[in-house]
Design brief:
The structure holds 2 protein chains of 2 kinds. Chain A is mainly α. Chain A is 76% helix and 0% strand. The longest helix of chain B is centred in the first third of the chain and has 37 residues. The radius of gyration of chain B is 21 Å and the shape is globular. The chains are: A mainly alpha, B mainly alpha. Chain A: InterPro entries: ABC_transp_permease, LivM-like.
Chain lengths: 434, 336
C-alpha cells in the first residue's frame, strides 16, 4: 500500500483503539494508557535513532531510562537537612578519587611502554585507588544514610521545578552513553549488545544499592508535579462548578484534567523530538548515517569517521531514552529502582521499534503507542478469552482455575509472537523505512 | 591451627559455592558457545530454554514423587532429567524448524538472528510462566547435606565447620560427566567431528559433504541437554524461578565471552572465572583474615569489596576488562 495512505490509516487505527478504550473502560484508563504510550513512543524514537539510523544494537535502554528517573529525584526533591554537612564532602572527594583512579590507570596504560611493569603499575593504581576511595567514600555514605532513614537517608535534590529534570535526565543519560560508547563501541554487534545489557544492569544495581543517592529499594515517593494535584482541583469551587456544568463527577473530572495536562506536555516533547529526528533523517548527516549502516567499509573508504559518528548517535539516542525516563518518573510521581526490569524497559521497547518499523520515525512512534496499548490490554483480553473458553467447564474446577491463572502470562507470549510474525512476514515493520 | 580454620572458612563460603556455581555457569555457557560456533548467533533465549527444561523436569519430579518413586538420598529430579531433556529437545527442534530455519536459508545477518532470538525469548518466557507460574519453587529432595557443619567440627575438632550440600556435590559430578561426554562426542565421533569442521569453516565442510541440516539438528539436541542439565542443577542448588533464569543470561554470556565465544574449553574456564570473581568480590573476608592475622590486628570492618547485590556488576566488569585487552576472549574465540 502507498505509504502516504498507510501511515494515516495506521495512526487512525490507534486513535480508534484509544477512543474505544475510553468509551468501554472510561476516559481515565484511556488517558493513562495514552500517557505511557507517548513516553514509550519517545523511548522507541531513541532506539530507532540508534538501530534504525545507524544499526547500533543497544539493549541497555533500561539503564538510560533509569538514569532519567534519577534526574527527576536529584532535580526536584528538597535537599535533606544536614546531609551535605554530614557526608557531602566525603562523597564528593570519594567520587573524585574514584575517577582519578580510573584516569590514572588509563594514563598508565597509554603512556608506559607495554610489558610487565606497565601491567603491574596499572593493577597497583587500581587496587590502591579502590581502597583509598572506599576509605573516604564509606564514612560519607554512612553519615548520610544515618539521617532519619525512614523518611530521607539520601542527600536529596536541588528543589528545582521537576520539568527541568527532563532535559537534565537527557544530559545524564548522554554522559553515561559517552563513557559507555568510549569503551564499548569498538565491539562487534553481538558483543556491543551484551555489553549494553550488562551496563544497564549495573546502573540498576547502583540505583538499588546506593541508598544515599536514590534511597535504593526504599523508593523515593511524592515527587513534585508539573500539573495540579487532583485533590487541589476537587477543592477548587470554580473547577467543581465547571465539571458539574459539563455533567461530570468532580473526582473523575479532576483525574481527566491532570492526565490531559500530562498528555499535552508529553505530546509537545514528542513532537519536538520527532521533528528533530525527521530533520536529522533528511539531512546529509542522516544520509551519512544510513550509508555507514548499510556498508561500513565503503563509508570508511569514503573518509567517514565511523567510530565518531557511532559515538554521536549512541549518545543522542540514549539521551532521548533518558528524557523519556525522567518523564516517566514525573508521571509516576515516584522512583522505584526495584521495578526496572529488562523485559519491560528494554526488550518491549525493541518490540515497539521492530513492529512499528525500524528506520522510520513515524513507525517507531506508532509502534510505541500501539504496543503499549496491547501490553496493557492483552491481559484483560486474555482473561476474557479464557473465561469464555472455560465457561463450559465446571465452576471452580482445576482446569478452569489453571486456565484463568495462565491468562496473566499472556502478555509476554503475545509480544513475542507478534515480534516473530512481524520479523518473518514484514521484516521492515508496519511503516517501513522509505 | 588458625591457618587451617581460615582454610575451612574459605572452603565453606568461597570454594565450595564457587565450584558449584561455576559448574552451572559453565554448562550454560557451553550451550551459548555451541550455538554461536555452529549457528553463528548469540542466543538470547538460552536462559529461558534452561527455565523451560527445568520446568518440565519439575513437573516430572512431582509426578514421580506422587507415584511414590524417589531416588533415595539423591534428588528425584535426576530421574526426571531425561524427560526434561527430551521435551526441551522437541521444543528447540520445533523452534528451529518454525523460526530459525527461514533466516538460515536466507543467510540473514547474524544481528537479525539475535533479534529473532529476542522474540523467541519472549515466547519461551511466556510459555514457562504458562506452564509453571512465576513463584519460587524448591524441588530438591533427598539428603540435604553430605557433610554437615556440626559433624565436621566434631570429627576434626576445629572451631570452624564445613558444610557441603548434596546438591553441590551432584552439580560438580554431573557437570564434569556432561563436559567429558561432550568433549568425547566432539573429538571422537563422526558427527562431532563434522560439527567442529562446520564451525571452523562452513564452506569447506559443505564441500566435504557434511550434511548441514544434520549438524544443526544435533547441535540443538546437545544444547537442549546442556541447558536442561544446567537449569536443573541451578534449580536444585538454589531454587526455580522463571525470572531468575532470565537474569542468568548475563553471567552466562559473560562466561562464554570471557572464555572466547565458540570455544567449548573457553566456556568452561569462563564459567569458573565469572563464578569465582562474583563470590570473592562480594564475600566478607573478615573471618578469614581474622584467623590469619595476630589477634590485636583483627580487622574492624567486614572487608567486603562490594555488596552482594553487585554480583551482576562484577561479571560484567570482568567481561569488559577481558574484551578490552583480549577482544576474542581468553581462549581464542571466533568472530562473525
Amino acid at each position: 500500500m502507498n505509504p502516504a495512505i498507510r501511515s494515516p490509516l495506521l495512526f487512525g487505527f490507534v486513535a480508534i483503539l484509544m477512543i474505544g478504550t475510553g468509551l468501554v473502560q472510561g476516559w481515565n484508563s484511556a488517558l493513562l494508557i495514552l500517557n505511557m504510550g507517548l513516553i514509550s513512543a519517545i523511548m522507541a524514537l531513541g532506539v530507532n535513532l540508534q538501530w534504525g539510523f545507524a544499526g547500533l544494537f543497544n539493549i541497555g535502554v533500561m539503564g538510560f531510562v533509569a538514569l532519567g528517573g534519577l534526574a527527576a529525584v536529584l532535580i526536584s526533591t528538597p535537599p535533606t537537612t544536614g546531609a551535605w554537612a554530614a557526608g557531602g564532602l566525603n562523597i564528593v572527594i570519594g567520587l573524585l578519587l574514584g575517577a582519578a583512579t580510573v584516569i590514572g590507570a588509563i594514563l598508565a596504560q597509554s603512556r608506559m611502554a607495554p610489558g610487565r611493569v606497565r601491567n603491574l603499575t596499572t593493577l597497583a593504581i587500581l587496587v590502591v585507588g579502590f581502597f583509598v576511595y572506599r576509605a573516604v567514600f564509606d564514612p560519607g555514605v554512612d553519615a548520610i544514610e544515618a539521617i532519619n532513614p525512614s523518611v530521607s537517608g539520601n542527600i536529596g535534590g536541588l528543589n528545582l521545578p521537576v520539568l527541568l529534570s527532563w532535559p537534565v535526565g537527557g544530559l545524564l543519560a548522554a554522559g553515561a552513553a559517552w563513557i559507555i560508547g568510549k569503551t564499548a563501541l569498538g565491539l562487534r554487534s553481538d558483543y556491543l549488545a551484551i555489553a549494553t545489557l550488562g551496563i544497564a544492569e549495573i546502573i540498576i544495581a547502583v540505583l538499588k544499592n546506593e541508598d544515599w543517592l536514590s534511597r535504593g529499594v526504599k523508593n523515593v515517593i511524592g515527587l513534585d508535579r508539573p500539573v495540579p494535584f487532583e485533590i487541589e482541583l476537587q477543592q477548587d469551587p470554580g473547577f467543581v462548578e465547571r465539571a458539574v456544568g459539563l455533567g461530570l463527577d468532580p473526582v473523575t473530572a479532576s483525574g481527566i484534567y491532570t492526565k490531559l495536562a500530562y498528555s499535552g506536555l508529553f505530546v509537545v516533547v514528542l513532537l519536538i523530538l520527532l521533528w528533530m529526528a525527521q530533520m536529522a533523517l533528511k539531512s546529509p548527516w542522516g544520509r551519512m548515517m544510513r550509508a555507514i549502516r548499510d556498508n561500513e567499509t565503503a563509508a570508511r573508504a569514503m573518509g567517514k569517521d565511523v567510530t565518531a559518528r557511532h559515538l554521536q548517535i549512541f549518545i543522542l539516542g540514549s539521551a532521548i531514552c533518558g528524557i523519556a525516563g525522567a518523564m516517566m518518573t514525573t508521571l509516576d510521581g515516584q522512583l522505584t529502582p526495584g521495578s526496572y526490569q529488562p523485559l519491560r524497559f528494554t526488550f518491549l521497547v525493541w518490540v515497539m521499534v521492530i513492529v512499528g518499523g525500524s528506520g522510520n520515525n513515524f513507525g517507531a512512534v506508532l509502534g510505541g503507542i500501539l504496543i503499549w496499548w496491547l501490553w496493557v490490554q492483552v491481559e484483560p483480553m486474555g482473561l476474557a478469552l479464557m473465561q469464555l473458553l472455560s465457561s463450559g467447564l465446571e465452576d471452580g474446577s482445576a482446569l478452569q482455575t489453571r486456565m484463568i491463572d495462565a491468562a496473566a502470562h499472556m502478555r509476554l507470549l503475545t509480544m513475542g509472537l507478534l515480534m516473530l510474525i512481524v520479523l518473518r512476514f514484514s521484516p521492515r515493520g508496519l511503516i517501513p523505512e522509505r | 591451627m588458625d591457618v587451617i580454620n581460615a582454610l575451612v572458612v574459605l572452603a565453606n563460603f568461597v570454594i565450595v559455592p564457587g565450584l558449584a556455581y561455576g559448574a552451572q555457569l559453565a554448562l550454560g555457557a557451553l550451550g551459548v558457545t555451541l550455538i554461536y560456533g555452529i549457528l553463528r548467533f548469540s542466543n538470547f533465549a538460552h536462559g529461558d530454554t534452561m527455565a523451560f527444561g527445568t520446568a518440565i523436569t519439575i513437573i516430572g519430579t512431582n509426578a514421580l514423587i506422587a507415584a511414590g518413586i524417589t531416588f533415595g538420598p539423591l534428588p528425584t529430579a535426576l530421574i526426571a532429567l531425561p524427560l526434561g531433556i527430551a521435551v526441551t529437545c522437541l521444543l528447540l527442534l520445533g523452534t528451529d524448524w518454525a523460526v530459525y530455519k527461514f533466516y538460515r536459508s536466507k543467510k540473514a545477518a547474524p544481528v537479525i538472528l539475535v533479534i529473532v532470538s529476542m522474540g523467541v525469548m519472549f515466547v519461551m518466557n511466556g510459555v514457562v510462566r504458562f506452564i509453571i507460574g512465576v513463584g519460587d519453587i524448591n524441588f530438591a529432595d533427598g539428603e540435604r547435606f553430605v557433610v554437615t557443619a556440626r559433624g565436621f567440627r566434631e570429627a576434626t575438632g576445629l572451631a570452624e565447620g564445613l558444610a557441603i550440600r548434596t546438591t553441590q556435590v551432584i552439580t560438580v559430578v554431573v557437570a564434569l560427566f556432561a563436559m567429558a561426554l561432550l568433549f568425547w562426542f566432539l573429538n571422537k565421533t563422526r558427527t562431532g567431528k563434522s560439527m567442529r569442521a562446520f564451525s571452523d569453516n562452513e564452506d569447506l565442510a559443505l564441500l566435504f559433504g557434511i550434511n548441514p541440516d544434520w549438524v544443526v539438528k544435533v547441535t540443538w539436541m546437545i544444547v537442549a541437554a546442556l541447558a536442561t542439565t544446567a537449569g536443573v542443577l541451578y534449580g536444585l542448588d538454589k531454587s526455580f524461578k522463571a525470572f531468575t533464569y532470565f537474569q542468568l543470561l548475563l553471567p552466562i554470556f559473560a562466561a562464554a565471552i570471557v572464555g572466547g565465544l565458540g570455544s567449548p574449553l573457553g566456556a568452561i574456564a569462563g564459567g569458573f572465572v565469572i563464578a569465582f570473581s562474583e563470590v570473592t568480590v562480594t564475600y566478607a573476608w573478615r573471618r578469614v583474615v581474622a584467623y590469619l592475622l595476630p589477634e590485636d590486628m583483627a580487622p574492624e570492618g567486614l572487608l567486603q569489596l562490594m555488596s552482594t547485590d553487585y554480583k551482576f556488576a562484577v561479571s560484567f566488569a570482568i567481561l569488559i576488562v577481558v574484551l578490552l585487552f583480549k577482544p576474542t576472549g581468553l581462549f581464542k574465540g571466533k568472530s562473525v
